[in-house]
Amino acid sequence: MRVLMFGWEFPPHISGGLGTACYGLTKGLAFQDVEVIFVVPKAYGDEDQSAIKLIGASGVPVMQRTVQFYKNLTEESLPRTELTSKEITYLEVGSMLMPYLSPEEFETFVNEKIEAKDYKWEKLLRKSQESKAVESKQIGTIDFSGKYGPDLLQEVSNYGLIAAEIAQGQDFDLIHAHDWLTYAAGIAAQKISGKPLIIHVHATEYDRAGENVNSLVFDIERMGMEAADRIITVSNLTRNTVVNKYGIPEEKVFTVYNAVEPNAKIEEDSIRKHLNEKVVTFLGRVTFQKGPEYFIEAAYKVLQKTDDVRFVMAGNGDLLRKMIRHAARLGITKKFHFTDFLKGKDVDRMFQLSDVYVMPSVSEPFGISPLEAMRSNVPVIISKQSGVSEILKYAIKIDFWDVDAMADAIYGLVKYSALSDMFSKHGKTEVDNLKWENAAKNTKEQYTALLENIKPQ
Amino acid sequence: MKSICLYFQIHQPFRLKNYRFFEIGADHYYFDDYTNQSILRKVARKSYLPANQLFLKLIEQFPGRFKISFSITGIALYQFALYAPELIDSFKELAATGQVEFLAETYSHSLVSLSNEDEFQHQVMTHSERIEELFGMKPKVFRNTELIYSDQIGEQVYRMGFKAMLTEGAKHILGWKSPNFLYYNVHQPKLKLLLRNFKLSDDLAFRFTNQEWSEWPLTADKYVDWIKGVDENEDVINLFMDYETFGEHQSAESGIFEFLKEFPKRIIEETDFEFLTPSEVVKTCQPIAPLPVPFPISWADEERDLSAWLGNELQNEAFSKLYSLRNDLKLANSPELMADWSYLQASDHFYYMCTKFFSDQAVHNYFNPYGSPYDAFINYMNVLSDFILRLEEAIDRDRYKGVIVDELDEEMLYEAIDRYALVLKRLRKRRTQLERNNPKGQAKK
């Protein structure tokens, strides 16, 4: 079975949960004997800048690489036979698509010409548990009509045009597109090839923007959902949104839960806490969707009662300044810290330092970060308005707006050690059992069912 | 002569209100009066009152031949008095017929039998006194919370003066043996054991309205046939269940009351079974064999063990913390604290913290007012934290760095002595200063 998959990011170039999810899923699929051709637009500063200029003029360079997955490090030393490693084909398309930016923000981004961050692919490669053997060669450029403009929606449709070209040049059984930026690409490939399309909904405009949806984005999303032969959602919560807000018939929407990679071995005691105080952490974008103000309110309540607790808000976002002011107004800044955006190793270190992790999201289609916390033995409190709450047992679930319940749960985890001990003990096992292999297996079932439905004709 | 022994359990806990941590130290009332009252009123109306009336009629219909027994916890009786006093009269009426036996148990439906023998005895005696005071009879047979039993608990119950005790006819204890005989404690042959026939009991208590059950609908005809089919040599069929089975777990619409009306009549008219109370069973039946139960059993869940109440870290922590307070409570000698301590012991609080997510979940959810076991634990521990503060205030003990002086380890003890020696030195110095400034030296001590 060959699948043409459209994504928008792939490790190490990730800015959120989607890249991680695509990585886990494609790896899982590779071990399920599904061949994946993974297409991503490239929009990162570590690529040749001249190439982008080149694209604007005439064509799109397409890089083909092979990403090899190894089950784990110990197997790396073994002879690399087909049994120990799997590979996927990985196509990078020159494009300026940026995830997690609204069309308006994208415009600002492009106009401001911000220097892109310096990602060190090679370093990460050595550090990560999965060793990837990367071979890349440029296989030429694909010509397409249409211009690259500083306009996200234009980018999306351009990506669609490229997709059409790629679809013509590849052999595959079905198309799998991740989130709205790739829907146009998925539809284009579907039209050119006549192969069935699955779209995978990791988030909807309702999750990103509350009720103030951008109607253009909404339209693209609905177009994708309507064109799709089958829809995969990351939770029943998202499934309900797709059915109720986009008017999609229930029978074509299926839930496949995400998972989390087991974490790389961390040297014991490599991180030592220097405080006797407990640390309660919020880690994520500081935006409306993530509910940071509820976390601050809960912190305030806890600090009224006990002072051997510290709170950390790790992340950046449009509400950060407002949150800092809010904490200052409540007079808790002595015990409440802001760290700005953390990445890579700092994220792991933050989890290592944490005694409680809180995800008070107002709307969270899935939410991988609590799984990462649990993987590091950190007890978690998650909002009931998150997809991940549908599958977790060893987690305290609260309504995001119920600050009293949130504060009570924090206090309970900090003060009653039996509770935190139980979570540390069983939470990791629970998370380790949520394997990408299973998510991939469920995804493959969707592929098979879809292909069987279509065959009779 | 073969017999049927009917026993019904009645218990209602004082459910806790939603008690947040910021109320610790500020709010000393823990109970959800509204919920407790409305649940009790509902159960009284749907189950206890109509069932009592029906049993009263049956007893009049078959004088001397239809008999039943009850065990009513002390805190259930207290809630009757608070919220449905007519129930007490109704049970008094039943007691007056002489065909109803009342059993002994712990006052607050507690798990104390797993903690401390003295306290166990104290709670059972408190309950027995209450029963005697209300119904004019001293209980002779003991029924432990959730039918929990072990060899050791049996011995303790015998030492309290009981001659018989009820427990579960658990498969893993009986093996090939039948529950339909009288057994006895393995160390103390004078303590007889009546074992619940869980198949025939649960046919009524759990399966009566289950339409997926192959025997649904269960008619008195069918049920009496099953009883007739019991091996001729067997002595007694013990049908033990929650009283709420009638009208609450199995609704009136299910026909459970009609079944109940019909069943005794058919037994008395068509079979050679007679209805006996537990005390009468002990008098008439010959005990057949000792029953070794080294580890505690109960009547709950598939496992028939303690895992519903003491099966995880949360429950164990809450349990040990609660019972660690016993000595301090004696010191404090406060009736208010004792009462709250007793209500906090009801096994229900621990049941709410159960994390056996898969098996028996439906039953657990039915009885659980909390969204999750963690909520239940946190709420309980918040309440317990406040209770401990009150208790310590009542005792008024000296502490160093939060540790009671009597419990300081050597290192901390010397640290404390050094620390206070220094403080004392400074205080004396200050006094000297004051005396010098005040030559007339009002040497206030």
Q: If you had to describe this structure to a student in words, what would you say it looks like?
A:
By secondary structure, chain A is an alpha/beta fold. Chain A has two domains: 2-259 and 436-454, 3-Layer(aba) Sandwich (Rossmann fold), CATH 3.40.50.2000; 278-432, Rossmann fold (3-Layer(aba) Sandwich). In chain A, 42% of the residues lie in helices and 20% in strands. In chain A, the strands form two sheets. A nine-stranded mixed beta sheet of chain A has the order 5-3-4-2-1-6-7-8-9, with helices on both faces. The radius of gyration of chain A is 22 Å and the shape is elongated. Residues 43-59, 72-84 and 109-150 of chain A have low confidence and may be disordered. Chain B is an alpha/beta fold and 445 residues long. Chain B is elongated and about 105 Å long. Chain B starts with a strand and ends in an 8-residue tail after the last helix. In chain B, the strands form four sheets. In chain B, strands 1, 2, 3, 8 and 11 form a five-stranded parallel beta sheet that branches. Chain B has a five-stranded mixed beta sheet with strand order 4-5-7-6-12. Chain B has three domains: 2-291, Alpha-Beta Barrel (7-stranded beta/alpha barrel), CATH 3.20.110; 308-399; 401-437. In chain B, α1 (33-61) runs parallel beside α9. The mean pLDDT of chain B is 93.
